[in-house]
Design goal:
The chain is an alpha+beta fold. It has one domain (31-188): tt1808, chain A, CATH 3.90.1570. The chain contains 5 helices and 13 strands. The chain has helices spanning 3-13, 19-27, 51-68, 125-129, 131-138; strands at residues 35-40, 43-48, 74-75, 80-82, 87-89, 93-96, 108-109, 113-119, 143-148, 153-161, 164-172, 177-179, 186-188. The strands form 4 sheets. It has a 6-stranded mixed β-sheet. It has a 3-stranded mixed β-sheet with strand order 5-4-7, with helices on one face. The longest helix is centred in the first third of the chain and has 18 residues, at 51-68. It is globular and about 45 Å long.
Length: 196
């Protein structure tokens, strides 16, 4: 099949596109090594994982494992389908409740997510602060953390209601992110978070 034939077929099927159909097509595409692919409100985004990005993700995962143990259900860059129109997201870090079970396709149900951490990539920052934040609030994810290595800040959003978060806490790198009063119950050290 040529690219043109594939595009015509996609246009003919656009009325019935599902996340599964979109991801099946993406799996046939050559995605460059080190890139994360997400579908945000029906638009496909590919963003590179830089070293600073990974170092921050690693520290968040380590803090979660230190608090909840090595058997805690933690996912990174794993597809989770969220409410709204075509939201197949792959959070940088997602902590799931202990009794979470995987979907038949091997993903996770958004209803089981207790915490999401996203580390900003320059080209997709608008998604993390915009549609993804709204989607996570609509899904009632109790704690949403945005780590921004370009600003050198962390933003914690809690108390989701009617598609928005009612509470926001912002701290600069070097200051502990105190989430002990949230359902997560974690203090995250940021003194070694790299800037980009």
């Amino acid at each position: 099949m040529t690219v043109l034939e594939d595009r015509i077929e996609m246009a003919d099927e656009s009325e019935k596109l599902t996340l599964d159909a979109l991801f099946e097509r993406l799996e046939r595409m050559p995605v460059p090594e080190g890139y994360k692919v997400e579908i945000v409100e029906g638009t496909v985004f590919m963003s590179p994982q830089r070293n600073a990005h990974w170092q921050i993700i690693r520290r968040i995962v380590r803090a979660l494992e230190d608090l909840f143990g090595m058997d805690a259900k933690i996912a990174s860059d794993v597809r989770i389908d969220f409410p709204g129109v075509l939201n197949g997201l792959a959070p940088d870090v997602a902590k799931l409740r202990d009794k979470a079970v995987q979907t038949p396709q091997g993903g996770w149900y958004f209803q089981d997510v207790e915490f999401i951490g996203e580390v900003i990539s320059k080209g997709t920052a608008h998604n993390d602060y915009g549609p993804k934040k709204s989607t996570y609030a609509l899904a009632e994810i109790p704690v949403y953390l945005i780590v921004d290595p370009y600003q050198g800040k962390c933003h914690v959003y809690t108390q989701p209601k009617d598609g928005e978060y009612l509470t926001e806490l912002s701290v600069t790198f070097g200051t502990d992110v105190d989430m002990t009063t949230t359902p997560l119950g974690l203090t995250l050290k940021t003194d070694e978070f790299p800037r980009d």
